[in-house]
Predict the structure of Beta-lactamase domain protein.
Amino acid sequence: MILKKFRAEGLSHNSYLIGSGQQAAVIDPRRDCEAYITAAEAHDLKITDIFETHRNEDYLVGSVELANQIGATIHHGEDLDFQYGMPVKDGEVFSIGSLSLTVQKTPGHTPESISIVVTDRAVSDQAYLVFTGDLLFAGSVGRIDLTGDPAGAAALMYQSLHERLLPLGDGLIVCPAHGAGSVCGGHISDHPFTTIGYEKNTNPFLGLEREQFIARRVQEKTYVPPYFSMMERLNRYGPPLLPAGQSPAPLTPAEVKTCQDLGAQILDIRSPTGFAAGHIHGSLNIWREGIAAYAGWMLNYINPIILVDDFNLDRNSVVRTLQRLGYDRVTWYLAGGFTTWSTSGNPIAQIKTWGPEDLADHLDDPDLLILDVRDINNRIEVGWIEGSRHRYIGELPMHLDDLPLDRLIVIHCDVGYKGSLGASILAAHGYPRVVNLLGGIGGWINAGYPVKR
């Protein structure tokens, strides 16, 4: 048996290739699917089947892309009318060499969610592993707030966990669709694999009684990025194929200015310090590692995107991350990096930065407004600066009317990256006095300043 896991960094998405004999199946593929084909070829396997454990919300699934290249059959749960692929029924069995892949209905995260139980018939009739999708993660379970009926979804999830999944046996290997850092579950453990037995003993959700489980899930505070609706629609009706051979084209500073005037979105992927020192006015600052988490909150799918970096290193990885979110109009990049802009005589915008001492020195300033852009769970767990106002960074663009234009706004997050993103949003919308607190709440606490809880 061949089992290979593929992790999409940023999204913390896991997909899998499993094979036996001369056949293979892929579970929950990502859109850039060459890695599955390469892995299959390395083991002389033919990918015959593609399984989607559920309709994904946080990325564009790669089933259509992969099937288009290799001719495999796509399978997904029957309780949603997908416009591509084939519905599967509870208990349906698929053979991959000596392996039996048995479908189990496990609704909860979504109504059509399925798990896939794998048995190696050449060894035993006992189940060996299970692909759980967004039902069970290492240390956590999937979110239940995306169906419009959180309590009903939580009840279904509890039933799926305790009546369908956990009875399969403590030794069963669990292969979830996401790992630590995913927006599809809270506090997922950083474990590459886990087992049913280990989760029974360590997962805080599995020891709860039914009503406790439902109550806890319903009370959870989660955020729903606006791009989720786009992913849900495309993953139901069939994502478009990736543009063939398309890569961003270089632009001169003059061309960047022209394209920006025509509506292009400028995405500056440098660090907060580089962005603060100088950037193109109106650009959005999302650091490389934050693109998967925040691009879907900030970028639209209509206007083309221009990338700005210092040295344009590993640009393809950034394009790939954006394409996984459905952004196919990553059209251009600033040739030569920001240095080209700064040496061309064009205006250079800047963001002021402070350290903890600077903020402490201004706490008595009546003109000061401290804006905390962390998620609410972090604010509650770690604490907050007295008098600060809270607005999660993802929701900031939708609530700019809540912020006065005439005050000094100091933005902070955990360490300064989301603060820089927030500062870039406010600056682009004409806020004249914006400061990013470098080091964020972590630097504030480490400098010995108090927080409220």
About this structure: Residues 36 and 281 are 41 Å apart (CA to CA).
